Amino acid sequence: MATQDFLVELGTEELPPKALKPLSDAFTQGIAKGLEDAGVEFGKVEAFAAPRRLAVRIRDLADAQPDKAVEKRGPAVKAAFDDSGNPTRALTGFATSLGITPDQLDTMETDKGAWVVYRTVEQGKPTVELLPELVDKSLAALPIPKRMRWGAHRTEFVRPVHWLIMLFGNKVIDTPIMNLTPGNTTRGHRFHCPKELIVPTPGDYEVVLKEEGCVLADFAERREQIRRGVTELAEKEAGGKAVISDDLLDEVTALNEWPVPLMGRFEERFLDVPAEALISSMEEHQKYFHVVAADGEMLPLFITVANIESKDPAQVISGNEKVIRPRLADAAFFYDTDRKSRLEDRIDALKPIVFQDKLGSIYDKSVRVAALAKKIADAIDSDPALAERAAMLAKTDLVTEMVLEFTDLQGIMGQYYAANDGEHEDVAKALNEQYMPRFAGDDLPSTLTGCAVAIADRIDSLVGLFGINQPPSGTRDPFGLRRASLGVLRIIIERELPLDLQTLCEWAEENFTVLTEQNTASTVVDYMLERFRAHYDEQGISAEVYLAVHARRPTRPLDFDRRVKAVEAFRQLPEAQALAGANKRVSNILTKQGGDSIGETVDSSLLQDPAEQTLAEQVNAQADKVVPLFEQGDYASALSSLASLRAPVDTFFDEVMVMADDEAVRNNRLALLNRLRNLFLRVADISLLPTAG
Known about the structure:
There is one protein chain. The chain starts with a strand and ends in a 12-residue tail after the last helix. Helices cover 49% and strands 14% of the residues. The protein folds into five domains: 3-65 and 127-212, ACT domain (Alpha-Beta Plaits, 2-Layer Sandwich); 69-122, no CATH class; 235-339, no CATH class; 347-540, Hypothetical protein af1432, CATH 1.10.3210; 571-688, Isoleucyl-tRNA Synthetase, Domain 1 (Orthogonal Bundle). The longest helix has 26 residues, at 313-338. It has 25 helices and 18 strands. It is α+β, with helices and mostly antiparallel strands. The strands form six sheets. A five-stranded antiparallel sheet has the order 2-3-1-9-10. A four-stranded antiparallel sheet has the order 13-15-16-14. The protein is flat. It is an enzyme of class 6 (ligase). Keywords: Aminoacyl-tRNA synthetase, ATP-binding, Cytoplasm, Ligase, Nucleotide-binding, Protein biosynthesis.
């Protein structure tokens, strides 16, 4: 089958920079999936995205769908013909529905008899007939939260659209889409090349734009050029290093078609302001990259990326310096003003700020968190007084001028102001560490005081909101309780803290007088333990391992984690599947015979069969060995040791009738099995693991 390259480009007003890459990815995936669903063969798929365009090129696209064999079954042969062999109404009706005569039908034999069948070959549609609808559907399905209309048309998109290319080989597919008639012309840079450019074939697309239009259409190429240019400029002009975050780099890439990095300077006096405030001003508001020296200290420099190759770049630099100066001056003013008041003098200013209608103000929350943090600090051998002090000051920077202007600096500025006030170093650090981890993979608090406040703040929110029946629902989680739960689990596990979730939630519950829900602490614990599933899934640990441990409901996260790691290691052993199967069998037997009413005291005088005698001896020996390991929390060694029970367990089930006629013998065997199962249950319910066969 013949193939051609295909190109589609939609030209627009400047697209939202943070949305450009997701829109490009979705557009590309939509077209590729549409072709796959239509059964059209194609080669490499290439995406292009720039501020004023979304484009996709498909290499080696087949010019038609493949022909498809079609088989439609009609009535059974015995119902298709009468006794004289003439077609019945069932047969003629089937043939008429297909637009054929009965003599064009075949028969087929199946294990349920013979059937009339129609066989034909459906010719594939030309690809050029499929592409317009496919492109239109892909554009309609883009993840655009709010679409807009413009002019007198009812067409809707994220931004007004102005031109459209649809080329199959060198031929234009001229079916209108989004009120645009496709052609083979694109548009160059808004200033360097404000005119239409002909794209002869799909393969010429990015070359024409780059060489004639001053547009780098390939997002990845443009991104790398910016990274390289910014890096080289910092090294060459300042002997420093440009700090390039991926998010900012993506946003700057989405803002520029023809990127030109330029270095500007600001007054050194602004370096007295905390670096985070300067960076926030430059990155968040101006999209500048900041520069640091070899020792990591910030330099009075910034790098902007212009979307134009100016004949007088000094003018562009000067303009950017004039823009950034008042913003940095504001930051310096806020910093100087804020330091004139101590954080402790701002505590009362938290009283009018509502945390949640039923749960009171930020001040009320601070009082509760302080009481809880004090208990947590005591439980983890930290200083309760420092934790209590840090919790009372934790939210005071919310009412500072700096944080009111730069909200992303909450906590960070609290640490600076606390240090300025002469607070204990751990208290100052805790004001920033209370928010850690801010996102998946983020750093954890480095101080125990920070751990206590971070945990207390999250547990207070969880218990309070669940206690007034405001848990997360579906995709709605306005207070970030899912993230809060994972944060608590990470801190406790990775900092190896001896904390129990049930105890924490009960402590928090004592601080409220407005909770309406029953058993709030237990409900929150169950919710948090469920978050472990996603936590381990990210680590590649199967759901069965998580469920095996969860079935025992250990409420100490560190203990839960050790069990999971032990069961995951056990699952890799050759004996694991057989023992999981045996545990499942034992569980079923015990459930049918009375469950919890069955004891585990084994009378050795009633052990008649050599196989049960051997199993009893092995279980006793293992109990002596592994019970101390359980008590130490060394679950991995215990399960590894218990794996040796596979052979005597297999032999027992092969040779011993558990449900013996003699009631005493039967009950003794059930007790032996219960004793065996209870050893494994000290870690997890391994009957939930995959079994052999």
